[in-house]
Specification:
By secondary structure, this protein is mostly helical. It has 16 helices and no strands. 58% of the residues lie in helices and 0% in strands.
Length: 316
């Protein structure tokens, strides 16, 4: 029901008095302000000025805009993760609602890989990609934050080292054994690639802070804090499983298939721009990254990334 003008003014006065401000001063400021417009609010001009090509090949613009859209969606996902991570109280419906939002964003990301797979000429891509070396989508810092915010750190550690790492392990040591470290190292010498060195120079400090920040408030930890009856809520379990599979299988495989089309298109298979063994790095049956392992059956875990796990998201 609409408020009367007097009620609205009273509420404005109460709002500013609560923070020690004079409401009359703020109201007077409205006399001199200009009306908001769509382009000012969305910052359209700034947004559309961020696409700068390195080549004259038209399809490079598709590549740039597509990845910028990905980063915007990653920002939305982190925003939703934090609603759960820092909520003072959690209910099954609140948890499920935000997980469903996140899953819709990742469903959109998965489906959108058709833009990459079908929206660029292979010949153009294979030319302009050489100007991107050593940059790589591997270097999306927001995607790493999504991982830290989704699950306990042990589930992001390379399988070969999990037995040697626990909650008392220094973050610096755990960082060196994250699953994606293997993609940035020379298998014979163990030395880090230029891709990894640049990535860490820019973001390692941020990552260490996020690893510590999400240590006790990531989605998996917050789920396990819930009362047993809430943890057994079927809607919430299905939302958790859907999110896990969407991120760690569906989206990854969509990315894998798009990369496969281009990198395997020529007479000689191409390397990823960052120099990683992209097939083993990207394919979920090798990564076996699972955010919520206890919500899957032994058979589902065994077949992770190998079968489609039809019906995975519905548990009665």
């Amino acid at each position: 029901m609409p408020h009367s003008k007097n009620e609205t003014l009273d509420q404005i006065r109460e709002k500013y008095e609560a923070i020690g401000q004079d409401s009359a001063t703020h109201l007077e400021g409205l006399l001199w302000s200009t009306p908001i417009t769509y382009w000012d609010y969305i910052k359209t001009d700034a947004l559309l000025g961020l696409q700068i090509q390195r080549t004259t090949l038209p399809d490079e613009m598709v590549f740039i805009i597509y990845h910028q859209i990905n980063e915007l969606l990653f920002k939305m996902i982190i925003w939703e993760i934090d609603q759960v991570a820092y909520a003072k109280t959690l209910s099954a419906s609140f948890f499920s609602m935000h997980l469903d939002r996140i899953s819709r964003y990742f469903d959109m990301l998965s489906a959108s890989f058709n833009i990459m797979r079908e929206g660029m000429e292979v010949e153009q891509y294979m030319k302009f990609r050489n100007t991107l070396t050593p940059a790589s989508g591997f270097q999306s810092a927001q995607y790493r934050q999504i991982e830290f915010g989704s699950t306990e750190l042990i589930n992001l550690i390379d399988y070969r080292f999990r037995a040697t790492i626990n909650r008392d392990t220094p973050y610096e040591h755990a960082f060196e054994h994250l699953y994606w470290q293997a993609a940035g190292k020379n298998y014979e010498t163990g030395e880090k690639s230029t891709l990894m060195n640049l990535f860490e120079k820019r973001y390692k400090g941020d990552f260490l802070r996020k690893m510590e920040e999400y240590n006790t408030v990531n989605l998996w930890t917050r789920f396990k804090e819930l009362p047993e009856d809430v943890q057994n809520d079927v809607e919430l379990i299905n939302a958790m499983r859907h999110y896990d599979h969407t991120v760690n299988v569906s989206w990854v495989m969509a990315h894998y298939n798009a990369a496969y089309k281009y990198l395997e298109s020529g007479e000689k298979a191409a390397e990823a721009t960052g120099g990683s063994d992209w097939k083993k790095y990207m394919h979920p049956r090798y990564q076996r990254r699972i955010f919520f392992p206890e919500l899957w059956t032994a058979e589902e875990l065994e077949n992770w990334g190998i079968t489609n796990l039809e019906g995975y998201e519905k548990r009665s």
